[in-house]
Design a protein that fits this description.
There is one protein chain. By secondary structure, this protein is α/β, with parallel strands linked by helices. Helices cover 45% and strands 12% of the residues. Strands 3-2-1-4 form a 4-stranded parallel beta sheet, sandwiched between helices. The longest helix has 18 residues.
């Protein structure tokens, strides 16, 4: 995945990863994911749906103070909710920096590597993927 997106020089690349997780595949999974997100947000006093929606203003509020809006932003997702990608592509600040992993290079190990090696990671606290990345970083 790193090679596909950045080519040579990947070890020096400054970039962010956004992990979009929708919990839409199965009703039981969605309910469980939403309950987990509600517990986490209540405990941390964070917005209960911001990490699901990944609105451009939410993403910019995280990346701007870090100076990361001028660097590539890679979106990885479970592929179940394309509205996140559409919203980010429609934002004039984010769209020019937004990158996607090509289908030929998509696999869980590549996504994990991209996320762990990123300069900045924005994920969903109710996602086991995001939890693994956060612990690994």
């Amino acid at each position: 995945s790193l090679d596909e997106i950045f080519g040579d020089g990947k070890t020096q690349q400054v970039y962010s990863v956004i992990h979009s997780r929708s919990f839409n595949s199965r009703p039981l999974e969605r309910k469980s994911g939403m309950q987990q997100l509600a517990r986490i947000s209540a405990k941390s006093r964070c917005d209960p749906i911001a990490a699901l929606d990944m609105q451009p203003e939410y993403v910019k509020a995280i990346l701007r103070p870090l100076g990361m809006l001028e660097h590539p932003i890679v979106l990885i997702s479970d592929g179940q909710d394309l509205s996140v990608a559409e919203r980010l592509l429609n934002d004039p600040e984010i769209a020019p920096m937004l990158k996607f992993v090509p289908n030929r290079a998509k696999w869980i190990g590549g996504d994990i590597t991209l996320a762990i090696m990123s300069t900045t990671f924005i994920g969903n606290p109710a996602s086991t993927f995001s939890g693994f990345v956060a612990k690994s970083r």
